[in-house]
Amino acid sequence: MQVFARSSLTALLLAGSVGCAATAAPSASLRTSAPSTTVPAPGQALVDPMQQATPPPPVEAPGWLGVALTARGPEQPGVLISSVLRRSPAAVGGLEVGDVVMGVNDARVNHPSELSQRVAELGAGGRANLMVERGGAPRLLAVQLGENPGFEGQLRLGFVDVGAPEFEHVEVASGALAPRLEALRGKVVVLEFWATWCGACRALLPTLNAWHERYQTGGATVVSVTTDPVEKAARDAVELGLSYPVLSDPDGLTAQAYQAFALPTLFVIDRQGVVRDVSVGYDPARIAQIEATLARLLSDS
């Protein structure tokens, strides 16, 4: 699967995760893995003979809470919880936005990096006893830590089966479309976040064109969102032959609302405006699942 990181729109820190905020500039697109110099035969896995004979011991995954952290003032102890991911270990364990974590398992923490390290060291499945202040009153919360599910897994936790955010300050670059998600109510929407510098996005374009042509008569539409200025987005839509509407999100507010920090990112939104599936990157098998969700939503309506 290919995933490209966009310039980060916010300084997002998820406790227990590594590199959770994408910082690569568009001119330095990064793949998630380096290309191999050896190409295996179709259906054949590339395995080093020594590794096959003596597999390495399993490595315990770092612990993960699923929160965004903010440092407090220099004279204020603890770490502020500024966001809690829906259905994450933190949410299940009772952490709330505004809580101040003072310590983990009797070890004091005064900086986000300290809390992240403590959580990671406990490992997935470990138990974190969090000393918390809420509204000035002390609390003790026991949280069963999980394993970081990655970009797509985090988006699925946060968005699937929840109402999709409304578009914010977007302009129509191409196509006949009102620049509001509410205007698409009653349609099944495939919402794509992309950029021209993203190779995986370009690989996905023919598929999205085909979907738009195949399913629009049945009540579906593909909508693309880019952070490029509206003039550039309009030119690119013509040059690349996009048959579906393109929206310009120059301030990145809509991308931020959808937490589309890796590209391409697809959201499937049903006729009632509820997110039903999310995909990150270009993986043909995963794209086939997205199309199956799209077809199912159209047939169920």
List the topology elements:
Layout: E1 4-5, H1 49-53, E2 67-71, E3 79-84, H2 89-93, E4 100-104, E5 107-108, H3 112-122, E6 127-134, E7 137-144, H4 150-159, E8 171-174, E9 188-193, H5 199-215, E10 220-226, H6 230-240, E11 246-248, H7 253-257, E12 262-263, E13 265-269, E14 275-280, H8 284-300
Mean pLDDT: 86
What assembly state would you assign to the polypeptide chains in this entry? single chain
Structural category is alpha+beta
Helix content: 25-40%
CATH architecture of the largest domain: 3-Layer(aba) Sandwich
Shape: elongated
Give the C-level CATH assignment of the largest domain. Alpha Beta
How much of the sequence lies in strands comes to 15-25%
The run of helices and strands is EHEEHEEHEEHEEHEHEHEEEH
User: What is the strand tally?
Assistant: 14
CATH topology name of the largest domain, in short, is: Glutaredoxin
What low-confidence regions span 5 or more consecutive residues with pLDDT below 50? 7-52
Short description:
The protein has 301 residues and is of the alpha+beta class. It contains eight helices and 14 strands.
Which labels suit this protein?
6-stranded antiparallel sheet, 2 domains, 14 strands, 301 residues, Pdz3 Domain, 6-stranded mixed sheet, elongated, 8 helices
Can you walk through the features of this model?
- It is a single chain.
- The chain is α+β, with helices and mostly antiparallel strands and 301 residues long.
- It has 2 domains: 67-144, Pdz3 Domain; 150-300, 3-Layer(aba) Sandwich (Glutaredoxin).
- The chain has 8 helices and 14 strands.
- It has helices spanning 49-53, 89-93, 112-122, 150-159, 199-215, 230-240, 253-257, 284-300; strands at 4-5, 67-71, 79-84, 100-104, 107-108, 127-134, 137-144, 171-174, 188-193, 220-226, 246-248, 262-263, 265-269, 275-280.
- The strands form 3 sheets. Strands 2, 3, 4, 5, 6 and 7 form a 6-stranded antiparallel sheet that branches. A 6-stranded mixed sheet has the order 8-11-10-9-13-14, sandwiched between helices.
- A hairpin with a 5-residue loop joins β13 (265-269) and β14 (275-280).
- It is elongated, with a radius of gyration of 21 Å.
- The protein starts with a strand and ends with a helix.
